[in-house]
Amino acid sequence: MPHRHRSHVKIAKTLRSLEPYSGPAMFTAIVVVGFVVGYAVDATPNIPEPYGRISSVIGWTYFAAWSMSFWPQIISNFARQSVVGVSLDYQLYNLLGFVCYAIFNCSFFWGASVQADYMALHDGHRNAVQINDVFFALHALTATLVQVYQCLVYPRGDQTLSVLSQVVVTASTLTCGLFYLVSTTTDSLGLFTTLNFLYLLSYVKLGATLVKYIPQVYLNHVRRSTVGYSIYGVLVDCLGSVLSMGQLVMDGAVTDDWSVISGDPVKFGLGAVCIFFDVVFMVQHYVLYPDTDDDERGGIVVYPASNVVVVELAAASENDPLLKNVVPSAAYTFLATAYDDFEKSDALDNAPRGGPVAVHVPQVVVLCGE
Asked: Does residue 88 sit in the same domain as residue 162?
């Protein structure tokens, strides 16, 4: 076996050693980015000072928060070389939602005809989409594509996409495609307009957000564990949602124009939905399953090329549910050694490939088998 397997274990150990500092570091970075960029760019033009500058800072702060919320999960998946604990349905709904959201924001910000149609329907008021909304949507789509790729290449246990999620995503895609086709091939000024097509995309995004968290909540419940689903991403996401809703309310109050909410309902609705489910995840992680968090039980590092799985557990046993998620119905032989000796030994290099065998140390279980 190549020595890169041992290096992956060291990467995972290093990332876990930095975990206590990752939360404060992320929140500090979010605040710094929000203030620096918020003051560096032009203030929101249609809002009087000093509220225009405050709105700009809030907007870039929640942009930084929501953007960073994707990376703890990506890093966790990489360190563990596994997506066990992450719902595949959640990722599919996420992909659908952010494709729609990116098209919606880009069209409202850069589409001159869309802006004109919006102003005609809202007494000359401009839409509430700002440049940070566009950057967030594009970054979110990119980060989601990275996570989808991880779901395709990393082991995911016995989890598969549900029939329901496939039907919902397919039906939503076909509906949006047909609506767009009709709106671009007819001169109708009624229902089938480009503006209404974009609103349809926004509602698909809102719908995807409403349902995407449910499979993850259910998966955590079934596993009685939140291991594999990053709590840091949840905390940062909640911060971004609170700031997003606060910005909309402040902008509406300052300009006495509440169409910033009624004209962009998806933005306000997304914030409310995200906050609700973020609270649910916090309850699962800190209250319902406090003994199975990442600090207590660790994660799973899988090396499919060599049939090696490293499971970090405080107390591993053959009946541990996390092991069943990795290799169902396998019988393991546990061999004791010391953690430091394990790192320096050739246990990974010399591990047999013929059948399931485990090298068990206080914090690491190495499962080797076909």
From this structure: yes
Buried-state track 341-361, b at ≥16 Cβ within 10 A, e below 16: ebeeeebbeebeeeebbbbbb
CA atoms within 13 A on the CB side of 319: 0
Does residue 68 register a pLDDT over 50? yes
For residues 334 and 327, what is the distance between their CA atoms, to the nearest angstrom? Answer: 15
Q: Is 113 exposed, middle or buried (0-12, 13-18, 19+ CB in 10 A)?
A: exposed
Segment 334-342 mean pLDDT: 37
Is the pLDDT at 358 greater than 70? The verdict is no
Q: Are residues 236 and 310 in the same domain?
A: no
- Per-residue confidence (pLDDT) for residue 360, from 0 to 100: 40
Do 12 and 312 contact (CB within 8 A), yes or no? Answer: yes
Instruction: Provide the pLDDT for residue 19.
Output: 62
The token duo for 149 is 């790729």
Claim to verify: residue 193 and residue 51 sit in the same structural domain = yes
- From CA 103, how far away is CA 198, in angstroms rounded? 8
With 70 as the cut, is the pLDDT of residue 364 above it? no
CB 22 within 8 A of CB 72: yes
Residues 291 and 328 in one domain: no
Burial of 259 (0-12, 13-18, 19+ CB in 10 A): middle
Looking at the 3D structure of the chain, how many domains does it have?
Answer: 2
223 contacts 85 by C-beta, under 8 angstroms: yes
Domain that holds residue 346: 299-368
Confidence of residue 281 (pLDDT cuts 50, 70, 90): very high
* CB of 5 closer than 8 Å to CB of 306: yes
Tell me the pLDDT tens digit for each residue of 224-253. 888 889 899 999 999 988 998 888 888 888
